[in-house]
Amino acid sequence: MELRQLRFFLKVSETLNFSEASKQLYITQSTLTQTIKQLETELGVVLFDRNSHEVHLTEAGKELVDYANRTVTAADDCMARMTDLTQMKCGTLRIGVTHSFSLMTAEVVTEFCRLYPNTHIDITYLRMEELIDKLCRHELDVVLSYKPTHISKKVESVELFKDQLGVVVPQDHELASRPSLTLADIANYSFALPAKGLQARNVLERLLVAHNITLNTRVELNIATPLLRLVRKSKMLTVLSCSAVATTPDLCAIPLEGEESSMVGCFHTLKGVYRKHAADEMLRLLKEYIAFYKM
């Protein structure tokens, strides 16, 4: 039995589709099918019930999933430990980032690459729920996002900073001098908002429902940077975490009043899994960045 066979088996058990699994593994479907057959022959069991329309795990297949996951995770942990022994002269750190953390990530990764030029960084931008799912499936080493209301017990979260949802305006805007705002204060302005499903928008939607207020939403985008450009070049405002504009001197974020608008930035990893030295170094640099900008 080979690790490669177990990895292929786990991907098919996850997708329950040989065609989709082969695409995600970047191999041909015939190679995948042959590898699964070899594994079934070696184990003396059938792992999948399959016909022209459906694929299902057999009883033996269901039993193997847990053992295969533990075996592959142990092998990955071993490889990570051995890589760390080379003092980060090689290896890859896989980071999942929500769009609210994009500016912070860009600056911290720049410094990380300067310090560790031979360590490869693989960054994935998705919604928080999708990133946590990838983390739990061992497809990411670290996730940077705000703390969700509910999170898997498999995940360990290090709190990095306290944040607040804020209304982003140019420094010369009539609201810029306000220490805080209520939803009623902004009800008559036009907005370009983060898309539904993004964390800042989720918090905003809960506030709007609770206060029975509707904003004049003209534009919705799933990336923060274009939202900031729209605020600069139009009369529209946006709503993001206050930290999202910490390094943009021409813009400011006025906090929305209320405990419901508070957010906590976190560094998420899996419990019980070896954490790479590269992840620890990334955490250290993030804390330095946060301290420098007094977030």
Summarize the structure in words.
With 295 residues, the protein is of the alpha/beta class. The chain folds into 3 domains: 3-84, Orthogonal Bundle (Arc Repressor Mutant, subunit A); 88-160 and 264-292, 3-Layer(aba) Sandwich (D-Maltodextrin-Binding Protein, domain 2); 163-262, D-Maltodextrin-Binding Protein, domain 2 (3-Layer(aba) Sandwich). The chain is built from 10 helices and 11 strands. Strands 3, 4, 5, 6, 9, 10 and 11 form a 7-stranded mixed sheet that branches. It has a two-stranded antiparallel ribbon with strand order 1-2. The longest helix has 27 residues, at 59-85.
Identify the CATH architecture of the largest domain.
3-Layer(aba) Sandwich
Assigned CATH class of the largest domain: Alpha Beta
Looking at CATH, which topology of the largest domain would you report? D-Maltodextrin-Binding Protein, domain 2
Distance between the termini: 50 Å
- As residue ranges, the low-confidence spans are none
Taking all Cα atoms into account, the compactness measure Rg is 23 Å
Shape: elongated
Specify the CATH homologous superfamily of the largest domain.
Answer: Periplasmic binding protein-like II
pLDDT averaged over residues: 91
Number of helices: 10
Number of strands: 11
Give the helix level as a range of percent. Answer: 40-55%
What percentage of the residues does DSSP assign to strands (E)?
15-25%
What is the N-to-C succession of helices and strands? HHHEEHEHEHEEHEHEHEEEH
Report the structural category: alpha/beta
Count of individual domains: 3
In this structure, how is the largest beta sheet organized? 7 strands, mixed
